[in-house]
Structures are given as C-alpha cells and as structure tokens.
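Subject: Protein record for review, amino acid sequence with backbone structure tokens
Why sent: The fold of this protein is of interest and is recorded here as tokens.
Enclosed: The protein record, placed directly beneath this head.
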Amino acid sequence: MIRVLIADDQPMVRAGLRQILGAEPDVEVVAEAADGVEALRLARELAPDVALLDIRMPRMDGLTVTRHLAGGPTRVVVVTTFDLDEYVYPALRDGASGFLLKRSGPALLAEAVRAAYAGDSLISPSITVRLLKHVTGPRPVRPAPVEALTERELEVAAHVGAGRTNAEIGAELFISAGTVKTHVAAIQRKLGVRNRVGIAVWAWDTGTVAP
C-alpha cells in the first residue's frame, strides 16, 4: 500500500485529492495538512511514501518543504494550479519526483503517485513539452520500438508529444477518450516506456509532434 500525505491550504482541494486517491486500491491517504509547517511535521512524523504538496501554502511554501524532504524516505509530487517556470525548475532541481497541474485529471494523479513510489518521475505533459523545448543539442539515438506503431498510434503519440490530454486528443481525432487511453497503453508497451512523459520524449526525439 502506498501511503500518501496531502498538503494544500484549500479544504475542497484536499477533499478532492483524497477522494481521487481513495478510489485507488493500492493507495492510502494517511494524513492531510493545511500549511507547509504542518506538512513537514507530518512527513517527518509519519514518513509517508509520497507527499502531494501545493506550491503556495501559509507559513511555509511547497518548494521549501520539498527542499527539507529531499533525500529522505518521502518522495514529493508537486500539485499546483500555477504552470510557471519559476516553480517548475526549482521544484525538480530540489528533488521533487513529479510536477502536476491540478487540471491534469485523476488518472495522471494516481500515475504520478505510483511513479514517485517506484522512484520514477512524472510531469504534466504540457510542462514536459516546455521543458523539452528548452533542451538544445543533437537528439539522442533511440532504439526502435519493440513493435511498430500503427498509423493511429503514431497520431496519438504525436498529440501526447504536444502535451494534449486524452479528451483533447479524442476530440481532435474524433474518437473517445477511452479509445485514446487504450492507444496510449499500447504505445507505452511498444516503446518500452512507463508513462506519457516517456511517449512525449520519444515524440520529440523522433520529430513526431503534432502542431
């Protein structure tokens, strides 16, 4: 069971995150905090596997809490409304295992918690795209997919690379979000990547990115 601490100064946000994670069979919310000082105290006292931290909190902000928890048993996933470089880069530099926007949706939230628990990282696709655009130099040579992607899968991968959600991709390609999810799972298997971020990286490395 993955033990999670939720820290956000808005009670409705905490309740929403608890409800989302409470529906996951392998996740347990063990504590909530309304400010950064309380979040740090609970993290040190309970040693949860993952802490979901908002950026802007009273008494101590999420970036400061992240720095205090870096290198310890609790991995941090920042969950915020604010898609700003001044938050993204310090959070990742100071040890956050993930950076999600609150609009990312339940599936990505659960995936980010599991990725952090496993020692992996997951970043909101739209933020990943911006980070990739800052990368300079030649693209690395990547191994060919284990199995060739179909034409439809290439289309879906291109839109994932552009940072679009399943709903947005479905609307663009005139298919359901559920069908997009199925394609995404197949693409991950064929590329040998663990999440949407891996697909986005592959799309950028190969030039397969939708406009």
About this structure: The beta strands are 2-7, 27-33, 50-53, 75-80, 98-101, 122-123. The two ends are 40 Å apart (CA to CA). The domain at 2-123 is CATH 3.40.50.2300 (Rossmann fold).
